[in-house]
Amino acid sequence: MANLLTKRVVYYLLTALIAITFILPLAWAVVNSIAPNSATSQSDGYGLGNYGALAVYGEGLTTYLSNSVILTFVAVAACLIAATMAGYAIARFTFAGKGLMFVLVLSILMVPYAALLIPLVVWMSELGLDNTLVGVGFVLALFQLPFGTFVMRNAFESIPSELEEAAKLDGCGTFATFMRVMVPSVKAPMVTVGLFVFLNAWNDFMVPLYLLGPQNAPLPLAMVNMRQQVMGVIDYGLTTAGVVVLAIPAVILFLALQKYYIKGLISGAVKG
Amino acid sequence: MTRSTRLRTGVAALAAAGVFALTACSDGGDGTDPGGEPAEEVSGEGIDDGTTLTMWTRAPLERQAVNAVEAYNSSHENQVELEILPNDDVEGRVGAAAQTDALPDLLAGDVVRIPYWTSQGIFQDLSEQIQGLDTLDDLQVGHIDAGTIDGAQHTLPFVTDISVMVWNKDLYEQAGLDPEAGPTTIAEFTEHAEAVAGLGTDGVAGSYLSGQSGGALVFTLLPSIWASGDEPLSEDGTSANLDSGSALDVYEAYRGLAETENGLGAGSQQETGATWTAPFQEGNVGVMPYPYTAVTGLFETADFEIGVGPIPGVDGGESTFLGGDAIGISSDSENAPQAWNFMQWLMSEDAQQEVFADNNDTAANLAVLESGYEGADPRTAIANATVEHGRTPVAVHFNEAFNAAGSPWQLLIQDAVWGDASTISSHNEAINTILAQ
Amino acid sequence: MAVMADTDERQVVPHRRSRWSRTDTLRGWAFLAPALALVVVFFIVPVGLVVYMSATDWTLFGGFTAMNFPQNFVDIASDPMFAKSLEFTLKYTVLTTVILMPLAFFLALLVQEARQWNKFLRTAILLPSALGIASSSLLFYALYSPQVGPLNPILDSLGLMDAQQTILGTADGALWATVVLVVWRFTGYFMLLTLIGVQAIPGDIYEAANLDGAGRLRKLRSITLPMLKPTIAMTMILSVTGSLLAFDQFFILTKGGPNNETLTTVLLIYKYAFETKKDLGMAAALSVVVLLALVIINVLQLRALGVGRSEEK
Question: In terms of DSSP H, where are the helices of B364-423?
Answer without folding.
Answer: 366-371, 378-385, 398, 408-413
